[in-house]
Specification:
Elements lengths: L15 H7 L15 H6 L3 E7 L5 E8 L4 E5 L5 E7 L2 E7 L4 E11 L2 E10 L2 E13 L13 H12 L21 H4 L2 E13 L4 E13 L2 E9 L5 E6 L1
Antiparallel strand pairs: 1-2, 1-8, 2-3, 4-5, 5-6, 6-7, 7-8, 9-10, 10-11, 11-12
């Protein structure tokens, strides 16, 4: 194994070059492919995953969970509508950044904790980009990981403030929209632990900002979420997201 509801923030469509680096589908599965116990097999994917191109350093931190009827996937770096299906050992993930754009990852499970495949981008249903060499691996979190970004205490304070109904600090929404908690925050309960994972880009309607978010795995009393934030040199919070 290798060493995720989204914040309500608006994001522009991902730029093609960014997609090529980040999107991580072999030919489409046949329509008559047998569906084999989707509920139980899909639930076996529950947990935290890292999806990345086999060449390069771009990746997605994703959380897979089983809802009432279908599995769902939430990725920190792609805070857009998405869907996940599993037929036999074939995994298909679709992201919908706009009504006209669909970003697809398809692959085959190689073990209970990994899959390999490819990615493509469709514009109005027409293939636009294709990228081979996508892999997904279940994350193994190291609780002792050093917080080189140094923002874990601030993140804990922000989550506490928002849980109490108000952010008690200035916030610049020009870059990444309004601060919002996951809609199921009350269900998640109190914060139990915060673990640093690394840095992630921000894709706004203005530009791709490299290494903008300091990303953390937050263990709540009743669940887990990927949360990220950015603070300016002047101490102004200008980016926040939890998925």
């Amino acid at each position: 194994m290798a060493a995720a509801d989204a914040a309500q923030i608006s994001y522009a469509p991902v730029k093609p070059l960014f997609l090529l680096a980040l999107l991580l589908a072999a030919p489409a599965m046949a329509e008559d492919a047998p569906v084999e116990t989707v509920f139980s097999r899909a639930s076996s994917l529950n947990g935290l995953w890292k999806i990345q191109a086999t060449q390069g350093d771009k990746f997605l931190n994703c959380r897979i969970e089983h809802a009432t009827t279908d599995p769902s996937i939430h990725c920190f770096e792609r805070p857009v509508s998405s869907a996940l299906t599993l037929r036999d050992n074939s995994v298909r993930i679709a992201f919908y950044p706009t009504l006209l754009q669909t970003d697809i990852i398809e692959g085959e499970l190689t073990s209970p904790d990994s899959f390999r495949g490819s990615g493509r981008v469709l514009l109005s249903g027409i293939p636009f980009l294709h990228h081979e060499g996508i892999s997904g691996t279940r994350l193994a979190i190291v609780p002792e990981a050093s917080d080189t970004a140094g923002e874990a205490p601030l993140l804990g304070t922000i989550l506490s403030e928002l849980a109490n109904g108000r952010l008690n600090r200035p916030y610049d929404s020009n870059k990444n929209g309004k601060v919002a908690l996951p809609r199921d925050m009350k269900m998640l309960g109190a914060v139990a632990a915060i673990t640093y994972l690394g840095m992630a880009n921000s894709n706004s309607d203005r530009a791709i900002l490299p290494d903008f978010f300091a990303v953390y795995l937050v263990n709540f009393q009743n669940g887990q979420r990927f949360c990220g934030l950015h603070v300016t040199e002047a101490g102004l919070l200008d980016g926040f997201r939890c998925v």
